[in-house]
Every structure is written in C-alpha cells, then in structure tokens.
Amino acid sequence: EVQLVESGGGLVQPGGSLRLSCAASGFTFDDYTMSWVRQAPGKGLEWVSAISWNGGSTYYAESVKGRFTISRDNAKNTVYLQMNSLKYEDTAVYYCRAGSDWGRGTQVTVSS
User: Fold this and answer.
1) Is the alpha carbon torsion for 77, 10, 106, 16 positive or negative?
2) How far apart, in whole angstroms, are the C-alpha atoms of residue 101 and residue 56?
C-alpha cells in the first residue's frame, strides 16, 4: 500500500521559514518524480515544485521560485520542501504527490 505522510507544517510569521517532509512507503521511491502541490483556502490546487527521481532536476512554480527548495533523500524515502521568506499567500495545505498517489497534507499558515 502506497503511503505518503507529510509533516513539518505549522504557524509561521511572514518572512519566516519551514521545512516540510514527506515520508514515502509502499513503492519504489527512486522510480518516481516527486511533487509538492498546495491548496489555499477557498482556492484550487496549485502545483508548487517537483524533483526528478535522482534529484538531478528540480522545477518550481513562479510564485515560489527563489524562496522554496525541493530535495530528496532516496536512502530515507523522503522528499523535502524548504520554504524561506514565507508570505501570507503561501498559506495552504501542502500535499506530497507520487504519480497518482497523494498524502493527506500538512497545514502551513503564514500570519503575524
């Protein structure tokens, strides 16, 4: 059974940082490109970032480019999202995705 478990969300002030983690199990992790997708309150899903199977290629939405960094540790079956210079508009539930499988998400709230 595929499991994707996100963690690391929380409440942070504007300009602050958070590091999200997604622990994967139930599939061959390093066969997959991994992605982060978010959903802000009252809005649709927004793709945030992706990383190739070996970490050699990374991709970012324009809205987070230069502030967020995606990485992975295939030995730990984990993908990360380092989020710096957080803005109010980064408030959302952040989901980890592998192919058609999704985690349950972790809430990130940026507020003063």
Assistant:
1) negative
2) 22
Task: Write out pLDDT tens, residues 40-86.
Answer: 999 999 999 999 999 999 999 999 999 999 999 999 999 999 999 99
Distances (CA, A) of 21 to 77, 80, 112: 10, 4, 24
Residue owning tokens 């969300």: 9
Q: Is residue 30 classed exposed, middle or buried when 0-12, 13-18 and 19+ CB atoms within 10 A define those classes? A: middle
- In the numeric block, which tokens belong to residue 28? 């061959």
Residue 105: DSSP 8-state: -
DSSP symbol at 32: S
**Cα 101 → chain centroid:** 14
Two tokens at 60?
């970012």
- Where b means 16+ CB within 10 Å and e means fewer, 96-106 reads bbbeeebbebb
CA-based R_g, the chain, Å: 13
